[in-house]
């Protein structure tokens, strides 16, 4: 089967949470992502959308008035940030550690070689990976 390329304007990864304010604090003040926009009371949903400078990739967190349970499925479900500058990783990690989010041992030892793994308030994991990416 042959796959054809297609044009995509943006990609957004969206995730519900019942720890909305804690998740906002983690990703905005801890990781340092830029808030692109937020919204309130849209059919019972409120949310915040983060982005990285110069990219069309977004990360959205939502809450619903009736709750938004979203337990982390495994310790190997990861959001990986490829950051070539080791000093930036150190600054981000130090902020997160100071906020009470310690480094955790990754399920896959590959992420230990050049990365720091931290769990967000919902138990979902991020990796601050010291490489240029793929």
Give the helices and strands, then pairings.
Blueprint: E1 11-16, H1 20-31, E2 34-42, E3 45-51, E4 57-64, E5 78-82, H2 86-98, H3 110-114, E6 115-119, E7 125-129
Parallel strand pairs: 1-4, 5-7
Antiparallel strand pairs: 2-3, 3-4, 6-7
Helix pairs in contact: 1-2
Share of residues in strands? 25-35%
Compute the number of helices.
3
Assembly type of the shown chains? single chain
Main sheet attributes: strand count, strand direction, barrel closure: 4 strands, mixed
The overall average pLDDT, rounded, is 91
Helix and strand sequence: EHEEEEHHEE
Helix content: 10-25%
Rg computed from alpha carbons, rounded to a whole number of angstroms: 16 Å
Class by SSE composition? alpha/beta
Distance between the termini: 25 Å
Segments where pLDDT lies below 50 for 5+ residues?
Answer: none
Shape: globular
Across the major sheet, the strand order is: 1-4-3-2
């Amino acid at each position: 089967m042959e796959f054809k390329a297609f044009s995509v304007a943006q990609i957004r990864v969206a995730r519900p949470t019942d720890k909305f304010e804690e998740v906002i604090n983690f990703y905005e003040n801890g990781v340092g992502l830029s808030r692109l926009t937020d919204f309130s009371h849209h059919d019972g949903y409120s949310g915040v959308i983060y982005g990285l400078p110069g990219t069309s990739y977004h990360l959205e967190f939502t809450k619903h008035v009736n709750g938004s349970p979203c337990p982390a499925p495994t310790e190997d479900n990861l959001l990986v940030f490829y950051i070539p500058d080791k000093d930036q990783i150190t600054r981000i990690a130090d902020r997160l550690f100071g906020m009470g989010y310690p480094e955790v041992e990754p399920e896959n030892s590959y992420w230990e070689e050049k990365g720091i793994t931290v769990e967000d308030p919902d138990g979902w994991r991020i990796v601050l990976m010291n490489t240029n990416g793929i």
